[in-house]
Design brief:
heterodimer; A: 617 residues; alpha/beta; Rossmann fold; 3 domains; six-stranded mixed β-sheet; four-stranded antiparallel β-sheet; 55% helix; elongated; disordered N terminus; B: 234 residues; 2 domains; globular
Chain lengths: 617, 234
């Protein structure tokens, strides 16, 4: 593949108007017929339930299931957390609706809404410990929670609520009667109302997906470590998704209680929970339109088994869901919505570019980064063993040293990914030793990682937008991102996924992610590793220019002495966890201890290229 | 003389053509370096030569066409992939033994003893998981595993990536020893200066085809390539 990337030349740095870029932002257009197809098809399907009371009941159920699937879109599709316990908020919404309407005396419609919102505190209490887990562990924990509610909580609710409304027989004592708003007395009326509410919620969630919040969730899902490094509060966002998703499920539960006008604990069992996840995944777990499809499948398939050719499936629907799930996950993990091509995202629209405002303090006497006696140990091994140094505003400093000397551990300690066992890290005079990575990012500390990566499911522009939003640029961030896209030479790839970029451009995007979060101090971890010499030189030029334009201070780890000599004014040599030497590139290149421990035959490179730089400046 | 030869190789990923009708010849006891910018197809050439990707064209050892990766390995075409291809959770000993996978166990023990004789540190690290070693140490393990496989041809992909300069010196001392013991080496290296210093033959790639080839001394003739490829560096 031939790279279309343009290297920004030395003259291309002003960020002025660039008319050719504007046209690129249009993005590909689909033929109008294909764009209308989903709307026409779903619109037709939405009319079917109006043909009778029974179809309207099934239609209403489809809306309820679609809302449950929608709750999975936020939690599983975007935030990447799998729950098998969505039946818990669903059931709580149902019981809450009963209590609020029957006992408190609220109108039923209001009770559904209030019950859903009232689950928030409980969801926070459940989610805070549960979300310490991820992936399979979280799925199992939520499965156990659903089991507890199925066996203990829901039957207990039913018994106590039914008992107070007068003693009944054993079976019916577990049935709790719920009312319906009087105007929604017929199923058809109920369906009409449910359809409108459902559509509003689908559109709202779709808008949420395109909002900075949705982008941020997808970033958290794809790479929590990088997300934290650009300043995204990973735990906070996952909890927000968990709660929001739970509230939507609780709303669906309230709706189903009012639709069926009765609640039995049997409705809220663990298999229902598994079915919910199946509907969501079959429809397309990351797509709001997929949620509609999931609802149609969830309510429609059982009806299909009532007519002749499919009658043999009656009672075996679990097998059908299971089979469909396995098949879809193997062929199209993005579900029916992906299969039909209905989940395309629009290219980002960006305002006129404007450069970010440099975050200079102008107080040279306080070191921007002050590292004092830092120790990092893993188990018994001291990876960083009492290291102290300072970096002043505007400086470019390189940390070099043999493999295993503690460079990566030092970077992790500076950016907050490991906690030093002793010592203090100060940023602009403030002690940040105990702050989490995202807080340090907010305070102006940005970093890159050794492996070139970006958030794979976001486009290039969305990657930078997610970082810029977290970086607190606020309203100015889209303009700053547009500026950065041009400055990095990525404007013509703005709507492509990072996976399609050539390697050099991916490296540049990785640096761009850190820059978009608006740092004052940039930690670069082997920025040119794996790059060819021409690409590496271009990146060095770019970094040098950006340092001046954005008032950046740079601390870098690098093994290519040509790059160190080219970028750094000062070099710190680590060996066996401690500082072996510190000085200008020329001084370091002539230090026999450093040559023996690290430089070997490459000393001349550092000396010549570092000397060139010193003469130029 | 022993020769590993790729003829009219082409490799495509999806619709993207990475290598187009490329021929390359590696002789025993010589180092051939593949140079070129990122995306030129260097890694794909190595993968085709060791049978790891489906490809057009033929790979032959001493005139005998071989396409199966296991057969290529058994006749001594050993590939050290980018990132070294070690199993981080397995111990050094287990990783080394995998270099002789499929051979009788007595033979494996002998091969391991030979390699530990050459790199005494490998004996000391036997029980350590590879993931606990530093990058420089891992490179030694990768070279050790290469030797356990009894190479006649070594395909080395960015073996110095991420290493400190002294560690790179050490790795290249070993590459020269490999050559001196009669192994034919095909080298992909991002530090062009390193490759130029050791190579007997340079093959310069651009967009999946050979832009220039010849001994390093004549590289002056490929002026435009060197300018495009090496950038500002000499």
């Amino acid at each position: 593949m031939i790279s279309r990337r343009r290297h920004p030349g030395p003259e291309g740095g002003s960020g002025g108007a660039d008319p050719e870029v504007a046209s690129v932002r249009e993005g590909p257009r689909r033929p109008p017929l294909r764009r209308l197809a989903p709307a026409v098809l779903l619109g037709g399907l939405a009319l079917v339930p109006f043909t009778g009371e029974y179809p309207a009941l099934i239609g209403s159920l489809a809306v309820v299931f679609a809302l449950v699937a929608l709750s999975f879109v936020i939690l599983t599709g975007w935030a990447g957390d799998v729950t098998l316990g969505q039946v818990v908020p669903y059931g709580l919404g149902a019981y809450g609706t009963y209590v609020l309407s029957d006992r408190v005396g609220l109108p039923v419609a209001l009770a559904v809404v209030v019950a859903a919102v009232a689950t928030v505190p409980l969801l926070v209490v459940i989610g805070t410990p549960a979300l310490r887990l991820r992936g399979l562990d979280l799925a199992i924990a939520t499965f156990a929670l659903a089991l507890v509610f199925q066996v203990l909580a829901f039957p207990a609710f039913s018994r106590s609520l039914a008992a107070r409304s007068g003693g009944l027989t054993d079976f019916s004592s577990l049935v709790v009667q719920v009312g319906r708003p009087s105007v929604l007395h017929t199923n058809r009326a109920f369906y009409a109302a449910a359809l409108v509410i459902g559509l509003i919620l689908v559109v709202a969630v779709a808008a949420l997906g395109r909002s900075p919040f949705g982008r941020t969730l997808r970033a958290v899902r794809d790479d929590p470590v990088r997300a934290a490094a650009v300043g995204i509060g990973v735990g906070r966002h996952r909890l927000a998704a968990f709660v929001l998703s739970g509230v939507i499920a609780a709303f669906a539960g309230g709706m189903v209680a009012s639709l069926r006008q009765a609640i039995t604990p049997a409705t809220f069992n663990i298999f229902e929970s598994l079915n919910f996840l199946a509907f969501a995944v079959i429809g397309g777990v990351a797509s709001p339109i997929g949620a509609i499809l999931g609802g149609v499948v969830g309510a429609g398939l059982p009806e299909l088994t009532r007519v002749d050719p499919f009658r043999f499936l009656q009672g075996h629907l679990v097998l059908v869901y299971g089979g469909a799930l396995v098949l879809l996950l193997a062929v199209r993990p993005d579900g029916l919505a992906g299969l039909l091509g209905w989940d395309r995202r629009r290219p980002a629209a960006l305002p006129e570019p404007a450069p970010p405002v440099p975050r200079l303090t102008g107080e040279g006497d306080v070191a921007l980064l002050d590292v004092e006696d830092v120790v990092v140990s893993y188990g018994g091994v001291r990876a960083v063993d009492v290291v102290s140094f300072a970096v002043h505003e505007g400086e470019a400093v390189a940390v070099i040293g043999p493999n295993g000397a503690g460079k990566s551990s030092l970077f992790d300690a500076l950016s907050g990914f490991v906690r030093p066992s002793a010592g203090v890290v100060r940023l602009d005079g403030r002690d940040v030793t105990r702050l989490r990575p995202e807080r340090r990012a907010h305070d102006g500390l940005g970093r890159t990682f050794q492996t070139a990566r970006a958030f794979p499911d976001l486009t290039v522009a969305e990657n930078l937008l997610a970082a810029a939003h977290a970086g607190g640029e606020g309203r100015r961030s889209p303009a700053a991102v547009h500026w950065l896209l041009r400055r990095l030479g990525l404007a013509d790839r703005a709507d492509d996924r990072p996976g399609t970029l050539p390697f050099g451009a991916l490296r540049i995007l990785e640096v761009g992610l850190a820059l978009a979060a608006h740092p004052r101090l940039l930690l670069l971890d082997e920025p040119t590793a794996g790059m060819g010499a021409a690409d590496a030189d271009a990146l060095c030029d770019l970094l040098d220019e950006l340092r001046a334009e954005l008032g950046l201070t740079v601390l870098l780890v690098e093994h290519d002495m040509a790059v160190v000599g080219r970028l750094a004014e000062r070099v710190i040599v680590l060996d066996q966890g401690g500082v072996l030497a510190e000085g200008t590139p020329a001084e370091i290149a002539g230090d026999p201890a450093v040559i023996a421990a690290y430089l070997g035959t490459s000393a001349h490179l550092l000396e010549e290229i570092g000397g060139d730089r010193a003469r130029r400046s | 003389m022993t020769v590993l030869e790729g003829r009219e190789l082409s490799v495509a990923y999806g619709g993207v053509q990475a290598v187009v009708d490329l021929s390359v010849r590696i002789e025993a006891g010589r180092i051939t370096a593949l140079l070129g910018p990122n995306g030129a197809g260097k890694t794909s050439v190595l993968r085709a030569m060791s049978g790891l990707v489906p490809h057009g064209g033929t790979v032959s050892v001493d005139g005998l066409v071989v396409s199966d990766p296991a057969v290529l390995r058994s006749v001594g075409v050993i590939h050290v992939p980018q990132g070294r291809g070690l199993f981080r959770r397995l111990t050094v000993g287990q990783n080394l033994a995998l270099g002789a996978y499929g051979r009788p166990s007595a033979d494996v023990r002998r091969a391991l003893a030979d390699v530990e004789g050459r790199f005494p540190q490998l004996g000391r690290w036997t029980a350590r998981p590879v993931g606990s070693l530093s990058g420089g140490e891992q490179a030694i393990v990768a070279l050790g595993r290469l030797l356990v496989g009894r190479p006649r041809f070594a395909l080395l992909d960015e073996i110095s990536l991420g290493l400190a300069p002294v560690a790179v010196d050490r790795v290249y001392d070993e590459v020269l020893r490999l050559r001196d013991s009669g192994v034919g080496v095909l080298l992909v290296e991002q530090y062009a200066a390193r490759a130029l210093a050791v190579a007997d033959e340079i093959v310069a790639l651009q967009r999946g085809t050979v832009a220039w080839s010849g001994p390093p001394a004549e590289l002056g003739g490929a002026e435009q390539f060197m300018k495009d490829y090496l950038g500002a560096r000499r």
